C-alpha cells in the first residue's frame, strides 16, 4: 500500500484530551506499518495511545507493529483475541478493541477522553487527530471522517467498476448536499458527507457509553454505531476535513465487507447500489419528513406529531411521548415502521438520470451565492484522491 499523505507533522505535543485509537487487525503484516506510521505523524501524537487488537493473527502483524511503534511518539498497547465461532467477525473485533480502549481511558482517569478507531489497512492524514479535535471544540460529540480508496489500488480495478464507482460518488455528493439543505442540522451543515466508515470514526467517551457501545454486527458495525449515537441525540459531525484512505483490495479479511462488495460488483455489474444511495424522490421525501418531525419534536407538538404519523401510515399514538423521547429514537422508530419510509434499492443503470435530477433540484434549493456541489467524494470543493468506498 502506497504512502498517501506526507509524513511532515510536528512531533511536539499539543494541548488536548488524551485519546486512544482502537485498531482491530487480522493478519495485516503488509499494511499495519503504514497505518501506524500515519498515526505517528500526527501533530499531537504524543497525546495518543494506539490500542491494537490482534485478532487471531498467524502472520508477523505483531512484530511489524512493534517495530514501527518503537520510535513513534505514541504509546502502543497490544491486546490479543481469538474470537469464538459465531463471534468471529469485524463487528466483534472492532467492538472488543473499542471497549478495551474505553476501559483504558477510564482506568487512567480520563472520563471525558476521546475514543477513535481506524482500520489496519488504512492511513489517516497528518492532521486527522487535530481536525477531529477541532470538530469537537465546535460542538460535536462524535466525528465521522471522509474515507477514500487508495488511488493506486483503485487504478487496478476493472474500468467498468471504476466508472460505476465514480457515478456513485457523484450521486453521493449530491445527496449529501440535498440532505443538508432539506433537513439542516446544527453542527452538521454543508459542506458534509454521509459516510460512516470504521476507517475514521471518533466519539467522546461519555457519548460512547451513553449509546451502549459499538453494536456487535457481522457487517456494518460502523454505521450501527452512528445510528446508536443518533438514537440518543448525540451530536454527530460528518466532517469532510477529517480524512483517511483505505485499501481497495478485493480479497479482504472481513466477510461481507468492502473487499467482498468490490469483488461482487466486478463480477455482477447490475447489483444494486449501496443502501445509502436511493432514488432521489424517495430520499427527498425521507428528509422532508425528518425535518418536519424535528420541528415538531423541538416544539413538543404532540397533536402535530400525531397528524405527521398518520400521513406516514403510522398509528397516531406512536408519537404520544414526543416530549420525553429523544428525537433520534423517535425518527428511527418511524423510519422502521412506516411503509412509506422503507428503503428503495437503486440500480446502477439509473444513476445518470438520478444525478441529473438531483442537480436540477439542488439548483433551486441553493442560496443565490452558493456554487454547485464539488465533485469530490463528499461534495467538497476539491475532489479526493479516489472514489469513496461503501462502508463495510
TrEMBL record:
UniProt region (Disordered), positions on chain: 369-392
Q: Report the domain of life of the source organism.
A: Bacteria
Q: Does the keyword Transferase apply?
A: yes
Where it mainly occurs, coarsely classed, is: membrane
Subcellular location per the Swiss-Prot or TrEMBL entry = Cell membrane
- Domain Glycosyltransferase 2-like, first and last residues per copy: 21-154
The question of whether Methyltransferase is a record keyword is answered with no
Q: Which UniProt keyword terms apply here?
A: Cell membrane, Glycosyltransferase, Membrane, Transferase
Per its record, how is this protein called by name? Glycosyltransferase
The species this protein belongs to is: Teichococcus wenyumeiae
